[in-house]
Amino acid sequence: MAVASSRAPSKQARGPRGDGLLAAIFIAPAMAGFLVFLLWPTLRGIYLSFTRYNLLTPAEWVGLDNYRRMVNDPIFWGSLRVTVEYVVINIGVQTVAALCIAVLMQRLTTSSLLRGVVLTPYLVSNVVAGVVFLWILDTQLGIGNEILGALGFDHVAFLASNEWVIPSVALINVWRHVGYTALLLFAGLQAIPGDVYEAARVDGAGKVRIFFQLSLPMASAPLITLGVLTYITAWNDYFWPLMVSYSDSSRVLTVALSIFRSQTPQSGTDWAGLMAATLIAALPMLVLFGVFARRIVNSIGFSGLK
Fold first, then answer.
1. Residue of 166, 175, 281, 287 with fewest CB within 10 Å of its CB?
2. What is the pLDDT of residues 27-72, one digit of tens each?
3. Cβ within 8 Å of residue 24, ≥6 positions away
4. Structure pTM?
5. By the 8 A CB rule, do 72 and 295 touch?
6. Alpha helices, DSSP H only, in the chain?
Protein backbone atom coordinates (compact mmCIF):
# COMPACT_ATOMS: atom_id res chain seq x y z
CA MET A 1 0.00 0.00 0.00
CA ALA A 2 2.89 2.30 0.77
CA VAL A 3 4.28 1.78 -2.71
CA ALA A 4 0.90 2.48 -4.32
CA SER A 5 0.42 5.67 -2.31
CA SER A 6 3.88 6.94 -3.24
CA ARG A 7 3.21 6.50 -6.97
CA ALA A 8 -0.09 8.37 -6.96
CA PRO A 9 1.46 11.87 -6.71
CA SER A 10 3.75 11.16 -9.69
CA LYS A 11 0.70 10.43 -11.88
CA GLN A 12 -0.95 13.61 -10.61
CA ALA A 13 2.19 15.61 -11.39
CA ARG A 14 2.20 14.35 -14.97
CA GLY A 15 -1.37 15.56 -15.50
CA PRO A 16 -0.62 19.30 -16.06
CA ARG A 17 2.13 18.43 -18.53
CA GLY A 18 -0.30 16.36 -20.51
CA ASP A 19 -2.83 19.20 -20.45
CA GLY A 20 -0.17 21.63 -21.63
CA LEU A 21 0.77 19.37 -24.54
CA LEU A 22 -2.90 19.00 -25.52
CA ALA A 23 -3.40 22.76 -25.32
CA ALA A 24 -0.32 23.30 -27.51
CA ILE A 25 -1.72 20.91 -30.12
CA PHE A 26 -5.00 22.84 -30.27
CA ILE A 27 -3.27 26.24 -30.34
CA ALA A 28 -0.70 25.24 -32.99
CA PRO A 29 -2.92 25.77 -36.11
CA ALA A 30 -4.04 29.23 -34.98
CA MET A 31 -0.49 30.14 -33.95
CA ALA A 32 0.87 28.99 -37.31
CA GLY A 33 -1.70 31.15 -39.11
CA PHE A 34 -0.79 34.13 -36.91
CA LEU A 35 2.94 33.72 -37.57
CA VAL A 36 2.64 33.11 -41.32
CA PHE A 37 -0.18 35.47 -42.29
CA LEU A 38 0.13 38.29 -39.73
CA LEU A 39 3.45 38.51 -37.89
CA TRP A 40 5.76 37.69 -40.82
CA PRO A 41 4.04 40.05 -43.33
CA THR A 42 4.09 42.80 -40.69
CA LEU A 43 7.79 42.42 -39.99
CA ARG A 44 8.60 42.17 -43.70
CA GLY A 45 6.48 45.23 -44.41
CA ILE A 46 8.41 47.21 -41.79
CA TYR A 47 11.68 46.14 -43.40
CA LEU A 48 10.50 46.95 -46.94
CA SER A 49 9.37 50.41 -45.84
CA PHE A 50 13.07 51.28 -45.42
CA THR A 51 13.99 50.04 -48.90
CA ARG A 52 13.30 50.75 -52.57
CA TYR A 53 11.39 47.74 -53.85
CA ASN A 54 9.03 47.13 -56.78
CA LEU A 55 8.65 43.30 -56.84
CA LEU A 56 10.91 43.02 -59.92
CA THR A 57 14.26 44.04 -58.45
CA PRO A 58 16.00 43.22 -55.16
CA ALA A 59 15.24 45.52 -52.26
CA GLU A 60 17.69 48.44 -51.92
CA TRP A 61 18.13 50.01 -48.49
CA VAL A 62 17.22 53.73 -48.52
CA GLY A 63 16.70 54.40 -44.82
CA LEU A 64 14.02 57.00 -44.06
CA ASP A 65 13.68 58.30 -47.64
CA ASN A 66 10.26 56.71 -48.14
CA TYR A 67 8.96 58.25 -44.93
CA ARG A 68 10.36 61.67 -45.80
CA ARG A 69 8.67 61.46 -49.20
CA MET A 70 5.33 60.50 -47.70
CA VAL A 71 5.48 63.20 -44.99
CA ASN A 72 6.21 65.83 -47.65
CA ASP A 73 3.47 64.55 -49.98
CA PRO A 74 0.42 66.91 -49.91
CA ILE A 75 -1.79 64.15 -51.32
CA PHE A 76 -1.05 61.99 -48.28
CA TRP A 77 -1.93 64.76 -45.83
CA GLY A 78 -5.09 65.56 -47.79
CA SER A 79 -6.18 61.93 -47.66
CA LEU A 80 -5.36 61.89 -43.94
CA ARG A 81 -7.70 64.86 -43.32
CA VAL A 82 -10.48 63.16 -45.28
CA THR A 83 -9.94 59.94 -43.32
CA VAL A 84 -10.12 61.74 -39.97
CA GLU A 85 -13.43 63.35 -40.96
CA TYR A 86 -14.79 60.00 -42.12
CA VAL A 87 -13.69 58.25 -38.91
CA VAL A 88 -15.05 60.95 -36.57
CA ILE A 89 -18.50 60.86 -38.20
CA ASN A 90 -18.53 57.07 -38.08
CA ILE A 91 -17.54 56.82 -34.42
CA GLY A 92 -19.78 59.64 -33.19
CA VAL A 93 -22.99 58.86 -35.05
CA GLN A 94 -22.68 55.08 -34.90
CA THR A 95 -21.91 54.95 -31.17
CA VAL A 96 -24.75 57.30 -30.19
CA ALA A 97 -27.29 55.63 -32.51
CA ALA A 98 -26.27 52.11 -31.41
CA LEU A 99 -26.50 53.08 -27.75
CA CYS A 100 -29.99 54.51 -28.23
CA ILE A 101 -31.14 51.36 -30.04
CA ALA A 102 -29.61 49.12 -27.36
CA VAL A 103 -31.32 51.05 -24.55
CA LEU A 104 -34.66 50.94 -26.36
CA MET A 105 -34.35 47.18 -26.84
CA GLN A 106 -33.50 46.74 -23.17
CA ARG A 107 -36.33 48.96 -21.94
CA LEU A 108 -39.12 48.00 -24.34
CA THR A 109 -38.56 44.51 -25.66
CA THR A 110 -36.11 41.62 -25.88
CA SER A 111 -37.78 40.03 -28.89
CA SER A 112 -35.52 37.83 -31.00
CA LEU A 113 -37.43 38.96 -34.09
CA LEU A 114 -36.59 42.60 -33.36
CA ARG A 115 -32.92 41.72 -32.92
CA GLY A 116 -32.98 40.03 -36.32
CA VAL A 117 -34.55 43.11 -37.90
CA VAL A 118 -31.94 45.38 -36.31
CA LEU A 119 -29.15 43.15 -37.66
CA THR A 120 -30.58 43.02 -41.22
CA PRO A 121 -28.48 45.90 -42.68
CA TYR A 122 -25.30 44.16 -41.53
CA LEU A 123 -26.28 41.08 -43.54
CA VAL A 124 -26.70 43.03 -46.78
CA SER A 125 -23.65 42.79 -49.05
CA ASN A 126 -21.66 45.94 -49.74
CA VAL A 127 -22.32 45.74 -53.47
CA VAL A 128 -26.10 45.53 -53.07
CA ALA A 129 -26.15 48.31 -50.48
CA GLY A 130 -23.90 50.45 -52.69
CA VAL A 131 -26.14 50.12 -55.74
CA VAL A 132 -29.27 50.87 -53.69
CA PHE A 133 -27.80 53.99 -52.11
CA LEU A 134 -26.43 55.22 -55.42
CA TRP A 135 -30.04 55.18 -56.63
CA ILE A 136 -31.54 56.64 -53.43
CA LEU A 137 -29.06 59.54 -53.27
CA ASP A 138 -28.94 60.30 -57.00
CA THR A 139 -29.22 64.03 -57.61
CA GLN A 140 -31.84 63.85 -60.37
CA LEU A 141 -33.73 60.58 -59.94
CA GLY A 142 -33.00 59.52 -56.36
CA ILE A 143 -35.94 58.95 -54.03
CA GLY A 144 -34.08 60.84 -51.31
CA ASN A 145 -34.10 64.03 -53.37
CA GLU A 146 -37.71 63.39 -54.40
CA ILE A 147 -38.67 63.39 -50.72
CA LEU A 148 -36.70 66.59 -50.15
CA GLY A 149 -38.45 68.17 -53.13
CA ALA A 150 -41.86 67.15 -51.79
CA LEU A 151 -40.98 68.84 -48.49
CA GLY A 152 -40.03 72.05 -50.29
CA PHE A 153 -36.24 71.70 -50.21
CA ASP A 154 -33.83 71.94 -53.12
CA HIS A 155 -32.15 68.84 -54.49
CA VAL A 156 -28.85 67.96 -52.82
CA ALA A 157 -25.91 66.38 -54.63
CA PHE A 158 -25.16 63.98 -51.79
CA LEU A 159 -22.52 61.99 -53.66
CA ALA A 160 -21.26 64.63 -56.08
CA SER A 161 -20.60 67.73 -53.96
CA ASN A 162 -17.48 68.28 -51.89
CA GLU A 163 -19.59 69.39 -48.94
CA TRP A 164 -21.85 66.33 -48.70
CA VAL A 165 -19.94 63.39 -50.12
CA ILE A 166 -17.95 62.28 -47.04
CA PRO A 167 -20.85 62.77 -44.54
CA SER A 168 -23.13 60.86 -46.91
CA VAL A 169 -20.69 57.99 -47.38
CA ALA A 170 -20.00 57.86 -43.62
CA LEU A 171 -23.73 57.68 -42.83
CA ILE A 172 -24.15 54.83 -45.33
CA ASN A 173 -21.44 52.95 -43.45
CA VAL A 174 -23.16 53.78 -40.16
CA TRP A 175 -26.47 52.41 -41.48
CA ARG A 176 -24.81 49.13 -42.37
CA HIS A 177 -22.99 48.58 -39.04
CA VAL A 178 -25.19 50.26 -36.43
CA GLY A 179 -27.38 47.18 -35.89
CA TYR A 180 -24.42 44.93 -35.16
CA THR A 181 -22.96 47.51 -32.79
CA ALA A 182 -26.33 47.93 -31.05
CA LEU A 183 -26.63 44.19 -30.42
CA LEU A 184 -23.17 44.09 -28.82
CA LEU A 185 -24.04 47.05 -26.59
CA PHE A 186 -27.37 45.40 -25.77
CA ALA A 187 -25.47 42.30 -24.60
CA GLY A 188 -23.27 44.51 -22.42
CA LEU A 189 -26.30 46.20 -20.86
CA GLN A 190 -27.94 42.83 -20.25
CA ALA A 191 -24.84 41.70 -18.33
CA ILE A 192 -25.46 44.38 -15.67
CA PRO A 193 -27.07 42.62 -12.66
CA GLY A 194 -30.73 43.44 -12.09
CA ASP A 195 -30.10 43.86 -8.36
CA VAL A 196 -28.05 46.96 -9.12
CA TYR A 197 -31.01 48.59 -10.89
CA GLU A 198 -33.35 47.55 -8.08
CA ALA A 199 -31.08 49.10 -5.45
CA ALA A 200 -30.94 52.35 -7.45
CA ARG A 201 -34.75 52.48 -7.69
CA VAL A 202 -35.06 51.90 -3.95
CA ASP A 203 -32.73 54.87 -3.40
CA GLY A 204 -35.11 56.99 -5.47
CA ALA A 205 -33.08 57.26 -8.69
CA GLY A 206 -35.08 58.05 -11.84
CA LYS A 207 -34.61 56.51 -15.28
CA VAL A 208 -32.39 59.31 -16.56
CA ARG A 209 -30.17 59.23 -13.50
CA ILE A 210 -29.94 55.43 -13.62
CA PHE A 211 -28.84 55.59 -17.25
CA PHE A 212 -26.15 58.26 -16.86
CA GLN A 213 -24.85 57.26 -13.42
CA LEU A 214 -25.30 53.49 -13.56
CA SER A 215 -25.87 51.95 -17.00
CA LEU A 216 -23.43 54.13 -18.92
CA PRO A 217 -20.48 53.77 -16.49
CA MET A 218 -20.99 50.02 -16.15
CA ALA A 219 -21.16 49.67 -19.95
CA SER A 220 -18.11 51.88 -20.52
CA ALA A 221 -15.83 48.93 -21.28
CA PRO A 222 -18.00 47.57 -24.12
CA LEU A 223 -18.44 51.12 -25.39
CA ILE A 224 -14.69 51.70 -25.54
CA THR A 225 -14.13 48.35 -27.23
CA LEU A 226 -16.75 49.06 -29.87
CA GLY A 227 -15.32 52.55 -30.34
CA VAL A 228 -11.89 51.09 -31.06
CA LEU A 229 -13.34 48.48 -33.43
CA THR A 230 -15.39 51.15 -35.22
CA TYR A 231 -12.27 53.28 -35.51
CA ILE A 232 -10.27 50.46 -37.07
CA THR A 233 -13.07 49.52 -39.48
CA ALA A 234 -13.61 53.11 -40.63
CA TRP A 235 -9.88 53.87 -40.88
CA ASN A 236 -9.29 50.90 -43.18
CA ASP A 237 -12.49 51.27 -45.20
CA TYR A 238 -12.00 51.98 -48.87
CA PHE A 239 -15.13 50.44 -50.43
CA TRP A 240 -17.61 53.23 -49.72
CA PRO A 241 -15.26 56.06 -50.80
CA LEU A 242 -14.43 53.98 -53.88
CA MET A 243 -18.14 53.66 -54.62
CA VAL A 244 -18.45 57.42 -55.14
CA SER A 245 -14.96 58.05 -56.49
CA TYR A 246 -16.47 59.48 -59.69
CA SER A 247 -16.83 62.76 -57.76
CA ASP A 248 -13.87 65.01 -56.91
CA SER A 249 -11.23 62.39 -56.17
CA SER A 250 -9.35 64.53 -53.65
CA ARG A 251 -12.52 64.90 -51.55
CA VAL A 252 -13.14 61.15 -51.22
CA LEU A 253 -9.50 60.04 -51.23
CA THR A 254 -9.04 58.41 -47.83
CA VAL A 255 -5.75 56.84 -46.79
CA ALA A 256 -7.08 53.34 -47.47
CA LEU A 257 -8.39 54.36 -50.90
CA SER A 258 -5.10 56.06 -51.84
CA ILE A 259 -3.22 52.87 -50.88
CA PHE A 260 -5.71 50.79 -52.87
CA ARG A 261 -5.29 52.97 -55.96
CA SER A 262 -1.52 53.01 -55.69
CA GLN A 263 -1.49 49.23 -56.17
CA THR A 264 -2.69 49.52 -59.76
CA PRO A 265 -0.07 49.13 -62.52
CA GLN A 266 -0.92 52.59 -63.87
CA SER A 267 -0.05 54.30 -60.60
CA GLY A 268 3.70 53.78 -60.94
CA THR A 269 4.05 53.73 -57.16
CA ASP A 270 6.80 51.53 -55.76
CA TRP A 271 5.89 49.03 -53.08
CA ALA A 272 8.31 50.43 -50.52
CA GLY A 273 6.59 53.82 -50.61
CA LEU A 274 3.29 52.02 -50.22
CA MET A 275 4.60 50.20 -47.16
CA ALA A 276 5.74 53.52 -45.69
CA ALA A 277 2.32 55.05 -46.27
CA THR A 278 0.66 52.05 -44.65
CA LEU A 279 2.85 52.25 -41.56
CA ILE A 280 2.40 56.00 -41.17
CA ALA A 281 -1.35 55.60 -41.52
CA ALA A 282 -1.34 52.76 -38.98
CA LEU A 283 0.34 54.82 -36.24
CA PRO A 284 -2.93 56.24 -34.82
CA MET A 285 -4.35 52.72 -34.56
CA LEU A 286 -1.27 51.50 -32.72
CA VAL A 287 -1.48 54.41 -30.25
CA LEU A 288 -5.19 53.82 -29.72
CA PHE A 289 -4.66 50.15 -29.05
CA GLY A 290 -1.87 50.95 -26.61
CA VAL A 291 -4.03 53.39 -24.66
CA PHE A 292 -7.11 51.19 -24.45
CA ALA A 293 -5.51 47.72 -24.35
CA ARG A 294 -6.30 47.20 -20.67
CA ARG A 295 -9.85 48.42 -21.09
CA ILE A 296 -10.38 46.01 -23.96
CA VAL A 297 -9.26 43.10 -21.78
CA ASN A 298 -11.54 44.26 -18.99
CA SER A 299 -14.38 44.53 -21.49
CA ILE A 300 -13.91 40.93 -22.56
CA GLY A 301 -14.05 39.85 -18.96
CA PHE A 302 -17.03 42.14 -18.29
CA SER A 303 -18.98 40.58 -21.13
CA GLY A 304 -18.34 37.12 -19.78
CA LEU A 305 -16.38 36.02 -22.87
CA LYS A 306 -13.62 34.19 -21.00
1. 287
2. 999 999 989 988 888 788 788 888 887 777 788 888 888 888 878 8
3. none
4. 0.74
5. no
6. 2-34, 40-48, 65-71, 74-108, 112-123, 126-136, 143-150, 165-190, 194-202, 207-210, 216-218, 220-235, 239-243, 249-252, 255-261, 271-302
